[in-house]
Design a protein that fits this description.
Number of strands of chain A: 0
Helix content of chain A: over 70%
Number of helices of chain B: 11
Distance between the termini of chain A: 30 Å
Shape of chain B: elongated
Largest interface: A-B, 52 and 46 residues
Largest sheet of chain A: none
Number of helices of chain A: 12
Order of helices and strands of chain A: HHHHHHHHHHHH
Shape of chain A: elongated
CATH architecture of chain A: Orthogonal Bundle
Strand content of chain B: under 5%
CATH superfamily of chain B: MetI-like
CATH class of chain B: Mainly Alpha
Radius of gyration of chain B: 22 Å
Order of helices and strands of chain B: HHEEHHHHHHHHH
Oligomer: heterodimer
Radius of gyration of chain A: 23 Å
CATH topology of chain A: MetI-like fold
Structural class of chain B: mainly alpha
Structural class of chain A: mainly alpha
């Protein structure tokens, strides 16, 4: 019921929005304003960069997840390697993104591949660290019980340790998702487009900057939600405990 | 250019740019050389250090207070979630579009970027202090302020330094876009390759990367130095826990 009281306000806003569109939209860039009319008229220009940005986020996340999880499982099996891997992925994360894009550009050339390599490198530490944490925090008792039941090492890893580590792993994946969207904002330095290119193309015009930035924030939020949904599906026992 | 540099291709040219002055692309001014690189680096360092120090002054007391009273965990952890989602480029450009250009405005934008990791790490560090230790301090008659300052803060210092380290590294990386606000950091050759050429662009990238590694190594050393002896003894027998990189893995409750 309460929600209904907003209807007149929304209607008024909507009316202003459509009536002021004519004329105001054309003047908008000149006035350096932030007007919905201009955004509505020019939204089409942002669709392609948005799509590029989506690819620049999902592809590195998928590849990065496979590599980092592989590294972590390897380090879990051979503990002595763990500190070296952590140092390695940590160092990758320290490289400034713009510098990384431009340096790699001189080796692998301009384009999507270069950006994906850089973005994949940045996901490593976030995912690797969380997989390791998840595996380390599996209760010792659970592993002992599994051993007592006669499970092999491999069976223990895949049926006990890995499932129990999933919440931590997904937490890492969520962090990686939002930070990848952010770092992909600089991917245009590698000639891979994305929403960052739109921001950089006209950084003095508010309408442009806000539209592209908001789209990036929304993309990050949507990706986090998708990962969260996958997590819900993959770990049904978590909900059973919670309720 | 010496033959060694020539063999390195574009990288050799970039290294040459760092040490030797040359004509700009249009041929009107002299660019490059140690003098200019140092000048740009110095602005870059000033900007980054100023932003990180201001961010620490804001975020450290706030995180300490939130962690001490042990409430509003949602606030402390969600700032870092939101902070990560806001694109750095968008933030800087947004600030410039609304506040105008200049050193102070860019610095403010970078402060906003540096606050979330420091708040989160401070909070997590303080909450990670053994409750029994805090209870013992309370039992010894220490007041709340004394507990926060003399027990919780020292024990959480490694994790807090980890947060400051993340903040400084990301600020140095992002200060590269400051030339958009007319502040000439090392980003100048990067955003103006039409003046500095691709060699200048690459040279600036190399210097920024070296600067970041240096800052990271420096703060890692500080982090080790401020780690109380008790924690070091505790941490050493454990496996990969000794190295408190980024944030201590055991205590990362980055998202809820």
């Amino acid at each position: 019921m309460l929600g209904l009281s907003y209807v007149p306000v929304l209607a008024q806003l909507g009316e202003d929005f459509f009536q002021n569109r004519e004329g105001a939209a054309e003047k908008c860039p000149g006035n350096n304003g932030l007007c919905l009319g201009w955004i509505a008229d020019n939204f089409g220009d942002y669709v392609d960069p948005l799509w590029e940005h989506v690819l620049l986020s999902i592809v590195p996340l998928a590849i990065g997840f496979l590599i980092a999880t592989g590294l972590a499982l390897f380090a879990h099996r051979y503990r002595i390697l763990a500190p070296f891997f952590l140092f390695f992925v940590g160092t990758l994360f320290t490289i400034p993104s713009i510098a990384f894009y431009l340096i790699l550009l001189n080796i692998t050339g301009r384009g999507f591949t270069t950006a994906v390599v850089v973005l994949t490198a940045y996901t490593q530490v976030l995912i690797y660290r969380n997989v390791m944490t998840g595996l380390q925090e599996v209760p010792r008792e659970a592993v002992d019980v599994a051993e007592g039941m006669g499970l092999t090492r491999r069976q223990i890893l895949w049926r006990v340790e890995f499932p129990l580590a999933l919440p931590a792993i997904f937490a890492g994946l969520r962090i990686a998702a939002s930070s990848t969207v952010g770092i992909a904002g600089f991917a245009f330095f590698a000639g891979a487009g994305g929403l960052g290119g739109e921001i950089f193309a006209d950084p003095a015009f508010k309408g442009n900057v806000v539209t592209a930035s908001v789209l990036m924030i929304l993309l990050a939020a949507v990706l986090e939600l998708i990962v969260l949904t996958i997590q819900r599906v993959c770990t049904p026992w978590e909900r059973a405990v919670a309720s | 250019m010496t033959p060694v540099f020539a063999a390195l291709g574009p990288f050799g040219d970039a290294i040459d740019f760092i040490f030797q002055q040359r004509e700009s692309q249009a041929g009107t001014v002299k660019v490059g050389g140690l003098g200019e690189i140092w000048e740009l680096s110095w602005t870059h360092i000033q900007l980054s250090v100023a932003a990180t120090v201001i961010a620490t002054l804001i975020a450290l007391p706030l995180g300490l207070w939130l962690g001490h009273i042990g409430r509003y965990q949602f606030l402390a952890t969600s700032t870092s979630n939101i902070g990560r989602a806001v694109p750095a480029l968008g933030l800087i450009v947004f600030f410039i579009a609304f506040l105008g250009v200049g050193f102070v405005n860019v610095c403010l934008a970078l402060v906003l970027l540096a606050i979330p990791p420091i708040i989160t790490n401070t909070y997590v560090g303080i909450r990670g202090v053994d409750r029994e230790t805090v209870d013992a301090a309370r039992g010894n008659g220490l007041t709340g302020m004394q507990i926060a300052g003399r027990v919780e803060l020292p024990l959480a210092l490694p994790t807090i330094m980890g947060g400051i380290r993340i903040a400084l590294v990301s600020v140095i990386a992002t200060a590269t876009v400051a030339p958009l606000a007319n502040v000439d950091t090392l980003g100048r050759p990067i955003v103006s390759p039409n003046v500095y050429g691709t060699a200048g662009q690459l040279a600036a990238c190399i210097v920024v990367a070296l600067l970041t590694f240096a800052a990271d190594a420096l703060l890692a050393a500080v982090q080790r130095a401020v780690t109380p002896r008790g924690i070091k003894i505790q941490a050493n027998p454990g496996r990969s826990r000794g190295r408190l990189s980024l944030s201590s893995p055991k205590r990362s409750v980055q998202s809820t």
